[in-house]
């Protein structure tokens, strides 16, 4: 057998690339290196604007040229960086040399020694990851997450009054409405979204062991912690003043735990919708040309939700591992974080793929009103809760002498099918007031939904 041409190992870079490619714009190796170049350039410009060591500020044209080198970072720079790293065997040092080459081309050798000045690799890396992760979350993942929330909200509003038999422990229970159940889903995700949006993206810029030692020796008169703060916050990040050689990654652990939490709520949504499809409450809308089963032509499989489940599980497994690994570093520094952080994009990619499937899946289902109504009409015994509760109220009000209303209804309904006529006859024979009897006799499972429809309005609160 002849060898296969080079193929991607990860399905995210193969089968599913179209759905997740925007993540690669921020969290690929190339995107990380683009961010590293950006940090190196900004640090150099920052120093010249301060006039460190007698340097003059770069002209506006020179600054624009350097920043364009960072923002236009593309295949030629990727290839050249690979050549340099083949010699340096150090990724950040290769970036430094790449920037120096550009300075030479621009005739700026006079400031070349300010490239990577007083920096440890982690000063560049931690800021690069903070910027790339923030961009990926805000520009790619959150919009996809918001799209799913919007679809759930739309379902909640459209079907706010559609009655549906509930199931607790898999058994028929007090009815609800389809809209209220979707509102619960949207509400849960909204809350987590606010937490993710409020994430602090921290950065450090304090040298080899977080002490500004080299900085102070080079220029004892400067307030280096303040300059560090100014530089980090100027990038739109939150300054971390107390670190070892690395930024402690606590913000990453917090963020990944929250996204993992969102994944698990989304997973719960998938399993519930899948179950509603299995019960016949939701119909799947056939897609032109699609095959549901390779052998059973009648089938329309809920593949969107099943695919999403698998990808959410993979995403959470990776994010959980990242959150656990990144908060520990031996003494000042070890490299476990370096390898693990290269998988942030993989973790986010699996979640993004799941969001795409959920969004598509929600657009390919519809209510089966006939099935919903039939199940409600077949389970009149769920009104046992209503009847025993009204009896309790009547006893409390002095209009009834019935003892143990719960036991009375349990004897009538537990494990039994009870129809409308039987329940009405039972109600009419109760020792309760006439108004209560009339209210209970008129009640149907489809009516017994409380304020479910109006609870949907809580999404706007």
From TrEMBL:
Question: Is Lyase one of the keywords?
Answer: yes
Q: Which PROSITE patterns match?
A: FUMARATE_LYASES
The UniProt entry's coiled-coil ranges are: none
Domain named Adenylosuccinate lyase PurB C-terminal is located at 329-449
Boundaries of every Fumarate lyase N-terminal domain copy: 60-308
Tell me where on the tree of life, at the top rank, the source sits: Bacteria
Question: Does this UniProt record's set of keywords contain Lyase?
Answer: yes
**Listed Pfam families:** ASL_C, Lyase_1
Copy the pathway line from the protein's UniProt record.
Answer: Purine metabolism; IMP biosynthesis via de novo pathway; 5-amino-1-(5-phospho-D-ribosyl)imidazole-4-carboxamide from 5-amino-1-(5-phospho-D-ribosyl)imidazole-4-carboxylate: step 2/2; Purine metabolism; AMP biosynthesis via de novo pathway; AMP from IMP: step 2/2
Q: Which InterPro entries match?
A: Fumarase/histidase_N, Fumarate_lyase_CS, Fumarate_lyase_fam, Fumarate_lyase_N, L-Aspartase-like, PurB_bact, PurB_C
Key words, A-Z = Lyase, Purine biosynthesis
Top-rank EC class of the record's enzyme: lyase
Q: Name one GO biological process term.
A: IMP biosynthetic process
EC number(s) for this protein?
4.3.2.2
Q: Name one GO molecular function term.
A: N6-(1,2-dicarboxyethyl)AMP AMP-lyase (fumarate-forming) activity
This chain's function reads: Catalyzes two reactions in de novo purine nucleotide biosynthesis. Catalyzes the breakdown of 5-aminoimidazole- (N-succinylocarboxamide) ribotide (SAICAR or 2-[5-amino-1-(5-phospho-beta-D-ribosyl)imidazole-4-carboxamido]succinate) to 5-aminoimidazole-4-carboxamide ribotide (AICAR or 5-amino-1-(5-phospho-beta-D-ribosyl)imidazole-4-carboxamide) and fumarate, and of adenylosuccinate (ADS or N(6)-(1,2-dicarboxyethyl)-AMP) to adenosine monophosphate (AMP) and fumarate.
- In its UniProt entry, what is this protein called? Adenylosuccinate lyase
Which species is this UniProt entry from? Ruicaihuangia caeni
